[in-house]
Specification:
membrane; mainly beta; signal; Maltoporin, Chain A; 18-stranded antiparallel β-barrel; Beta-barrel_OMP; 3 domains; 20-stranded antiparallel sheet; OMP/PagP_B-barrel; 2 helices
């Protein structure tokens, strides 16, 4: 977590400090109040929420779902005087689970922040925060207790800031005390007490920031922080006697201000933490930060955030982890009483001194509608996923929340005539073709008291139809849709145990929320429920073959675009991720040693939509787009990785056989793209180069004895051609073909031999997409590709395994034309 000092410098970890400093930096003097010499403001409110989660304990297999009732009261008091400001806040959060009452929680918060103007150039600030809260199950240090770990978090900060010679400065101290309660946990035999006292610590930060150069629209600054972390117990309870106390620093140079329409801050520097334990040594790495806001229109705002920090952990052998987060927040205001927001964040946690790297994904969408100026209704959908190169710690969670809230103070003028109202509505139907990639995580016991955790999967084409109804509120689109999908995709594992899973027909319902851009193109997100038939088989040795066929319910999350082609016809391109309830299968079934199958599906789709009759809405006049010229941009994607794995094996009875299985996994990719294109009438031809980093991987772990191996795609460089056609004078539909070179890392452990191998594999990448303009010289693209790589092998002395890898990748890109 960023410190209050650091957060106030950059990303708003202390909103009060940031907002006050922003005022101070904005003029020649420190202005504390624009509302008069004296004022007292009081506000209070409460929200009541009903949540549904499909994964209470955040596990890959044996998932448990539940409903959660959450009540959140809050009060705030603000005192304003000519030279003084004081903010007081109090809040609570009470959570009650319908089935798993052990997860119930009561959280409380008290906070106070003050600021005093010393003179026209200097102000003093300070504050105190007290929190009684619980540790979420997604914490990497969660001890899997019978209930969540409770903790007490107390912090205080103070300092001075202002301007000297028209350059800003801030000096401050932040002290934070963390106290974790003990918790009981099951160790496999009995319940034991987990002593969390070795996590208690005092963190002290002393820092400053100084403006060094003014620009026309901003300021260049330097900043530094001394960071001391002192644990109450000098040695932890992990059994190896690690000393986790440390001291370190952060130093950076940055810029705050505006560039064109974009405003915010960026910085780059170095950070380091030196640990008392000589086995840990020193962690030194690059520090990065950004908090940038870009107004896409008068009612739409996009914010990009980058943060990097060195975090604490009690993971055995690790001194801590370097956390790198990057994400986007999009907010669109329809009217004072209606708004929609979406977010997407990726976080990499790189553990220092331990062979573990986690990738966390957080994304969601929220719709708020005020029933009057004080009472609102929120509908939220959130998706959380953790991927790791350590088997058994991955998970994903879908969470749906419906909330009613109110506040004493009105949030808009009740007499406003500019309130949200429907501007058009109607039914529609369509057909689509999909590339469905099924990924199954298998977990189950093996001989000799062991356990297997393994990833399998494959992909295939499916087709379907859909129908829906939607309503426009200005540029905001809300809708509901039903779909039916026909086809099969699945995988087979052939070894001393033969088992398989195949996905069949499915039907689903979902809610859609989208924003219409210029030229009437629609960008939307969706969430909903899907029911899919799964056929599974299992045979072990001479036991009878077991076959099951059951429908499984799952959550789906999707993003897509719809572009008008004319005459009520639109083209649609979409990507979905689906997570299903897991199930047990074995041979014999129910014999006590069943495997658990947890299925996740990624679906890329291309479809046509026909709008039926309805209330007509005003459509904008098309502004022709010229796609010619040089461009560059960024792109973010998600996809699946499959490797056909063939290799020699020996059964427990000593019989040799050949393994034939498809390993599979999923992951995210992000990178840069640049190219040049030329448009001749409606035809387009262009070439581009791309660079991307990836988290896609799969893992196999047979513990405590057996094979442990994995493959991970690290990154790609490539080049290709795009050929396309411009429809409706504003939308580019294109196909693409090119070559790529990707770096893969394969780790293999067996029979006392460890292999850590990097291979640069060439591949042929084919695909297509759609691109259109969303702002002046700014385009968005939705792109889907399939890549076939050359095969590679791993020699682990006792044998050689072959891998033939392919990849499906869906990306959303943002480009700027020069």
């Amino acid at each position: 977590m960023k410190s209050k000092i650091y957060g106030s410098f950059l990303c708003g970890a202390a909103t009060f400090l940031f907002s006050q400093a922003a005022v101070a930096d904005g003029g020649d003097s420190v202005v504390l109040s624009t509302q008069g010499a004296n004022s007292l403001e009081f506000d209070a409110g409460v929200s009541v929420s009903e949540q549904f989660t499909d994964n209470v304990f955040l596990t890959a297999n044996d998932r448990r779902s539940d409903f959660i009732t959450v009540i959140e009261p809050w009060i705030s008091l603000a005192l304003r005087r000519q030279d003084f400001r004081l903010n007081l806040d109090a809040s609570a959060e009470f959570g009650r689970f319908a089935d798993y009452s052990s997860e119930d929680f009561n959280d409380y918060f008290l906070g106070a922040q003050a600021r005093y103007r010393i003179n026209d150039s200097v102000f003093a600030f300070g504050g105190l925060d007290f929190a009684w809260e619980h540790e979420n199950r997604n914490s990497p240090d969660d001890v899997d207790g019978v209930k969540p770990t409770e903790l007490h978090d107390a912090s205080g900060f103070f300092g001075i800031g202002g301007k000297i010679n028209d350059k800003s400065f801030r000096l401050g101290v932040n002290v934070r005390d963390l106290d974790y309660d003990d918790v009981r946990a099951f160790d496999g035999v009995t319940f034991v007490n987990v002593d969390n006292d070795d996590r208690d610590r005092l963190q002290t930060e002393i820092g400053g920031r100084l403006g060094v150069a003014k620009t026309t629209n901003g300021e260049v600054f330097v900043q530094g922080i001394y960071d001391k972390r002192e644990y109450d117990e000098k040695i932890d309870n992990g059994g190896l006697g690690f000393q986790r106390s440390s001291d370190g620093f952060q130093a950076a140079v940055g810029y705050t201000g505006t560039v064109g329409e974009m405003r915010g801050e960026v910085l780059v520097g170095v950070m380091s933490q030196n640990y008392d334990d000589p086995r840990f040594g020193t962690t030194t790495t690059v520090d990065l930060g950004a908090d940038l806001t870009w107004p896409l229109s008068a009612k739409t705002q996009l914010t990009g955030i980058v943060e990097r920090s060195i975090e604490e952990t009690t993971l055995a052998g690790a001194s801590g982890y370097v956390s790198t987060s990057a994400g986007l927040r999009l907010r669109h205001s329809v009217a004072p009483n209606m708004s929609v927001a979406g977010y997407f964040f990726l976080t990499q946690n790189d553990y220092q001194g331990a062979a573990r790297t986690d990738i966390l994904t957080e994304t969601g969408i929220s719709l708020r509608r005020y029933l009057n100026s004080r009472v609102y209704l929120d509908t939220d959908y959130d998706f959380l996923q953790r991927q790791s190169d350590v088997a058994g710690v991955e998970y994903d969670e879908h969470r749906l929340t419906l909330s009613f809230g109110m506040s004493l103070d009105p949030r808009y003028d009740a007499g406003s005539v500019d309130l949200a109202k429907a501007s058009g509505s109607g039914f529609y139907v369509g057909a689509q073709v999909s590339d469905s990639a099924l990924h199954t995580k298998v977990d189950g016991p093996r001989g000799g008291g062991g356990n297997l955790t393994a990833d399998f999967g494959d992909h295939d084409l499916t087709g379907g139809v859909f129908a829906g109804y939607r309503t426009d509120f200005g540029n905001l689109v809300l809708g509901a849709e039903a779909e039916v999908d026909f086809g099969e995709s699945g995988w087979t594992h052939l070894a001393n145990r033969d088992f398989s899973a195949k996905r069949g027909n499915s039907f689903g319902v979902s809610a859609l929320t989208g924003v219409r851009t210029k030229n009437d193109s629609l960008i939307y997100g969706r969430f909903g429920l899907v029911s899919t038939e799964f056929d599974s088989t299992y045979q072990q040795g001479t036991n009878p073959l077991v076959s099951t066929s059951d429908r499984k319910l799952g959550f789906l999350l999707g993003v897509g675009t719809e572009v008008p082609l004319g005459r009520r016809v639109s083209a649609r391109m979409e990507y979905q991720v689906r997570a299903y309830e897991d199930y047990d299968i074995g041979s014999p079934l129910g014999g006590g040693d069943d495997d658990n199958f947890a299925n996740v599906e990624s679906v890329a789709r291309l479809g046509l939509v026909y709008a039926l009759g309805g209330t007509n809405r005003a459509t904008p006049e098309i502004e022709p787009t010229d796609f010619s010229g040089l461009y560059a941009g960024v792109q973010l994607g998600h996809g699946s990785l499959q490797s056909d794995n063939v290799g020699p094996r020996v059964s427990g009875s000593g019989v040799a056989f050949t393994l034939d299985a498809t390993r599979a996994g999923q992951g995210f990719t992000g990178g840069l793209v640049a190219g040049y294109g030329h448009q001749i009438n409606n035809f387009y031809v262009g070439g581009e180069a791309e660079f991307e980093l990836s988290t896609a991987d799969w893992n196999i772990e047979r513990s405590p004895q057996g094979r442990i191996y994995s493959a991970k795609k690290l990154g790609t460089i490539g080049a290709g051609l795009r050929l396309g056609y411009v429809v409706n004078d504003s939308v580019l539909l294109y196909g693409r073909a090119g070559v790529v070179r990707s770096k893969f890392n394969t780790e293999y452990q067996f029979g006392g031999v460890s292999v850590d191998q990097n291979d640069n594999l060439n591949g042929i990448r084919l695909g297509g997409g759609v691109e259109f303009e969303i702002g002046k010289k700014t385009n968005v693209r939705f792109d889907y590709t399939h890549t076939d790589y050359e095969s590679h092998s791993v020699n682990y002395v006792a044998g050689v395994d072959q891998f033939d890898t392919s990849e499906q990748l869906f990306r959303v890109g943002l480009t700027r034309k020069f």
